[in-house]
Amino acid sequence: MKPAIVTDVEGTTSAIDFVKSVLFPYARRRMADFVRARADDPAVQAVLDEVRRAAGADLSLEACLAQLDAWAAADAKVTPLKTLQGMIWAEGYAEGALEGHVYPDAAAVLRRWRAAGHPLYVYSSGSVQAQKLLFAHSSEGDLAPLFSGHFDTTVGGKKDPQSYRRIAERLEGAGAPWFLSDMPEELAAAQAAGWRVVQLRRPGEAQPPGPWPQAEDFYGVDAVLAAEGSR
Q1: What is the four-CA torsion angle of 25, 26, 28, 31, rounded to 10 degrees?
Q2: For helices 79-94 and 128-136, what crossing angle results, to 10°?
Q3: Among positive and negative, which fits the CA dihedral 137, 139, 142, 144?
Q4: pTM of the predicted model, to two decimals?
Q5: pLDDT tier for residue 231 given thresholds of 50, 70 and 90
Q6: Which domains does the chain have, with CATH numbers?
Q7: Which among 19, 22, 23, 10 has a CA at the least distance from the CA of 202?
Q8: 42-55 and 79-94 helices cross at what angle (nearest 10)?
Q9: How far is residue 155 from each of residues 17, 127, 170, 224, measured CA to CA in Å?
């Protein structure tokens, strides 16, 4: 079996602008009405209970909504917000109001890697549900069957090497896994955990370069893997 390849989403498989300018505003605009209309739904009640635990107070429904909106405004990486966003996006995708953006090069190379025997995974700060929705309803078709698993911040923060050690215990594949991301701090954490890494530096979205292989797209990543004997 070939090494596992784990990919980030924003700035890697998908445009940062799609998440920032489409998905986040869509969820924020609908959040209050969505929660009020489903306040008796056990899944929504569970989100509200998490908000109260995070706040350390028995907040009213409206106070919970205010806290969720504040988190959304700050792009906070907190589980109840991410869970609720995923629920709202699921409705949007089902209604055809949303289509997940995936770069054509990412879709083409992910398909090639899967066909060649690489186990593929996603690790993103977006919830597992949000990841699955984006790839299942993508601009490049249904990519969900390509992936063997998904990870989010419930395994730990993306800048913490321990998160990558936890993930590595659950991966298939031979040898050290690969992690693909645009963010130097995430790549440094993965490298510290013994992973091999490639930085995506897409034109117009590029983060500062780090001391590791870099590529402008997934074709460039494929060339790095080939040079390392991992393709």
Answers
A1: 180
A2: 20
A3: negative
A4: 0.88
A5: low
A6: 5-16+99-227 (3.40.50.1000), 19-94 (1.10.720.60)
A7: 10
A8: 150
A9: 26, 11, 11, 28
